[in-house]
Amino acid sequence: MTFLLRRVLVMIPTMLAIITITFFIIRLAPGGPFMSEREIPREARTALNAKYGLDEPLLVQYGRYIHNVVRLDFGPSYKFPSRAVRDIIFESLPVSLELGIYAILLALLIGIPVGSVAALKQNTVWDYAPMSLAMLGVSIPNFVLGPMLIFLFALTLRWLPPALWGPPQHKILPALTLAAIYIAYIARLTRGGMLEITRADFMRTARAKGLPEATIVTRHALRGGLLPVVSFLGPAMARAVTGSIVVEKIFAVPGVGQHFVNGAFNRDYTLVMGVVIFYAGFLILFNLVVDLAYAFLDPRVKLE
Amino acid sequence: MTPRAVDVGESVTQDAVLSVEGLQTFFFTEEGVVRAVDDVSFSVGAGRTLGIVGESGSGKSVANLSVLRLIPTPPGRIVAGHIRFDGHDLLKLPEREMRGIRGKRISMIFQDPMTSLNPYLRVSRQLTEVLEEHERMGRREARERAREMLAHVGIPQPERRIDHYPHEFSGGMRQRVMIAMALLCQPQVLIADEPTTALDVTIQAQILDLIRDLRDELGTAVILITHDLGVVAGMAHEVAVMYAGKVVEQAATEELFANPRHPYTLGLLESIPRLDRAQERLQPIPGRPPSLAALGAGCPFAVRCPYVLDRCHTHYPEFRTLGTKHRVACWADVSASA
To answer: Which of B103, B166, B238, B267 would staple B117 via disulfide (CB 3.0–4.6 Å)?
Structure first.
């Protein structure tokens, strides 16, 4: 319990550092929220800047922002002034979350069995073929894979819709595109972890006990063999939820990612800040979950 | 008393629970064929203990892993030999039936109880799974039996300790857990591979006592693998000395210590400290064990042997039999000079 409390307390300075760094970095970028191609009259711009306090010294703005964030007020979007940043994020977050969860589930469902088989049949075709494929999965960027999948399954075979977010068949291609790299990573991590475990003395003991091979693998090997996967899962989950920007763009999925991209283009300071804070929060949260899972899986790990 | 063969040597071979004959286990590596076990024979009877002594790499562990067919294949392979147990040749048994023998009728305990127990599973699980597999026991029954066994091997508070993880036990206690695990199904043969090497000296004696007591109580045949002649002296009825994949000398324990006939055995005995002799220095065996991938036709000990003869380099000696159960593979006729 003290472990949890301490971890939650540590989140505060971490988040503060992230907020501070992002706040000043984004202000370093040239331009501002009210400079667009369409010329706004000087008086209007001055009035807007004054309204949002953008004419005040940076430190004053920073102080006010922190003051608001503590009360979970991320301000209005500069681009869509009628809407609060919080509402924009809450509206699109479930979509990104859903897509991310599908991708990770897909990655676990495919990656773990493939990696296990590769380890157990080391240096056979069952090892080489999937591992080469995994290498490919790591190497192909998703902005290449996405269009390829669209071309194959949507335009040529006409099995699946090419874009938009809707009924389940819409979710397959974006989830698969997003999952590809995680499938590859998880397969490789599982293989590595399982290979290490199969060399462990206690695996020899398990065999000497006359247990069936299936029991040996599932009961004795998987648990320790999957530890590398588990520790990868925290950042992976956070990245799948937050890092689906490109995939969301390709498949026109209305997730958080589009707001991040558009926000950055538009110098929509508050929107970008809001998204960054949520992303960071996710990352920290999932890392905490992983540590808890670790203690659950490995009895030697004590959370203190 | 029931009528029995009078000749001790003969009765032992007849009553052998397990006998290994002409076993060859090779490892096919990139550096060449490693003849880890090359034409090794030994046997052990019920309630008896056979000590197998040799330095690391002499093939003693590989020979015994071969008995349970636990050699990692590839690169290892049992090339030839017979392993007779209960009227079967274990090397000819289908894997399914072999599994019914491992852990049930022939059990094994290993050197390092720290790494030989699964750190991720409670002791209870690691014990009950044996009973569930081999005795078809239910969870509750298996747990009760496991608890009894822990108590039997001297683990205090077994009711509480059974739910602990291996890392919560001390080294000696862990080895007790291993022994309990190995004896759950009351096997006919227990193979103990360096069971005390990783333990403190004071604990070593306790563990050896425990193995001996359980052997006498259950009538288990024990194969005790060790590099420590001291361990063998107090435990084994018979000793086989292994060098470079071969048994070089075999005899009843007292006979071997009193009348060692192989230069390697002599060397081993001279390199252990003795309290009953005023000795300035221990006599180590010069040189190192040979690479098992590059063995010639001769005796592998020849290069280190003080009694070496010309033919030692070209011809491997056949066993010579000295007395009922004493055999030695050496061209030279050497004996301990008192």
So the answer is: B166
Chain segment B58-95, per-residue pLDDT in tens: 888 899 999 999 888 778 888 889 999 988 898 988 98
Looking at the DSSP assignment, which residues form a beta bridge with residue B240?
A: B52, B250
Subunit contact A210:B133, Cβ cutoff 8 A: yes
- Distances in Å between the alpha carbon of B182 and those of B129, B132, B214, B291, B294? 12, 14, 11, 33, 37
Q: How many domains does chain A have?
A: 1
What would the two tokens of residue B87 be? 């009227």
Residue A196 forms part of a structural domain: yes
In a domain, A41, yes or no: no
CATH number at residue A117: 1.10.3720.10
Closest B-chain CA to A198: B72
Interface of A with B in 285-304 (CB under 8 A): 297-300
- Per residue in B248-272, pLDDT (tens digit) is 999 999 888 888 888 888 888 887 7
- Whether the complex's predicted ipTM surpasses the cut of 0.90: no
Residue of A nearest to B178 (CA): A205
In this complex, how many residue pairs, one in chain A and one in chain B, have their CB atoms less than 8 Å apart? Answer: 76
A254, A92 Cβ separation under 8 angstroms: yes
Range(s) of the domain holding residue A177: 85-297
Domain assignment of residue A31, yes or no: no
How many other CB atoms are there within 10 angstroms of residue B308's CB atom? 17
Q: What is the pLDDT of residues B88-138, one digit of tens each?
A: 898 988 988 999 999 899 999 988 878 899 988 899 999 999 999 898 888
Rounded distance, CA B38 to CA B265, Å? 19
Q: Does A226 touch chain B (CB under 8 A)?
A: no
From chain B, which residues contact A within 8 Å (Cβ)? 65, 68, 70, 99-104, 107-108, 110, 112, 115-122, 125, 129-130, 133-134, 165, 167, 178, 181
Confirm or reject contact between A223 and chain B (CB < 8 A).
Answer: yes
Contact A209 B133 (CB under 8 A): yes
